[in-house]
Amino acid sequence: MKDLIVLVADKNMEFLIKGLFPRIPRVEGLRNFSFDSFVHPFRDPGIVHEADKFLRPFSDKYAYSLVILDYEGSGQEDKSREIIETEISEKLNRVGWQDRTCVICIHPELENWIWVSDVRIQAAIDWDNKMGIYDWLYQNELKSIENTKPDRPKEAFEEALRICNTPRSSSLYENIGSRASYRRCQDQAFWKMINCLKEWFALEDN
Fold first, then answer.
1. What number of other Cβ atoms are within 10 A of residue 196's Cβ?
2. CATH assignment of 2-107+187-200?
3. Whole-angstrom Cα distance, residue 118 to residue 133?
4. Integer Cα distance of 144 and 151 in angstroms
5. DSSP assigned state of 40
6. From first to last of its 206 residues, what are the pLDDT tens digits of the chain?
7. CA Rg value for the chain
8. How many Å apart are CA 171 and CA 13, to the nearest integer?
9. Of 47, 78, 198, 205, which sees the most CB atoms within 10 A?
């Protein structure tokens, strides 16, 4: 049986975890684990309504499953992030994933995870402005002074790419995921994911 299957809503998510996950055993003191990733063809709404259908055939092939989607664009914005996660988890539990699955709903969306290192973001997108990117965010009213991240993380990232003339690509997310320190990330969904991986792949003597 393989270690982990990951179902995500888009290619950007897939590439970010491809960059991030190989680092986690070393950073968190876990055993090495393998994973296979799949992108749902119907993106966030597809995960909401069909994650259980998609993952049912894999329940006897993988020890654990991880599901990641954005809150915005899910079609479930009238619910809390936690309720969305619980409802998807309950459906997965009924098709063979009982106590072996973790659902992560990112509020508002994936880009909330990448704003953790100004140096790594600047390097990834070829930022050549003399002003640091976080100062630029504040000056352009894309980040309030009391917040550590942009108020609209996706729109801020896209605007930064635009002024750098850097094409948007999934490889940018892999680059950031493979290099940026995530210790300063304050996103609850991100740490829920890390804690699930720590529980599943802890060293035997931990």
1. 17
2. 3.40.50
3. 6
4. 7
5. -
6. 999 999 999 999 999 999 999 999 999 999 999 999 999 999 999 999 999 999 999 999 999 999 999 999 999 999 999 999 999 999 999 999 999 999 999 999 999 999 988 899 999 999 998 899 999 999 999 999 888 899 899 999 999 999 999 999 999 999 999 999 998 888 999 999 999 999 999 997 54
7. 17
8. 10
9. 47
- Sequence-separated contacts (24+) of 21-29 with Cβ below 8 Å: 21/197, 22/178, 23/178, 24/194, 24/197, 25/201, 28/194, 28/197, 28/198, 29/203, 29/206
Domain boundaries along the sequence of the chain: 2-107+187-200, 116-177
Q: How far is the C-alpha of 187 from the C-alpha of 184, rounded, in Å? A: 9
* 3-class SS shares of the chain: helix, strand, coil, % to 5: 50, 15, 35
Tokens representing 206?
A: 């931990």
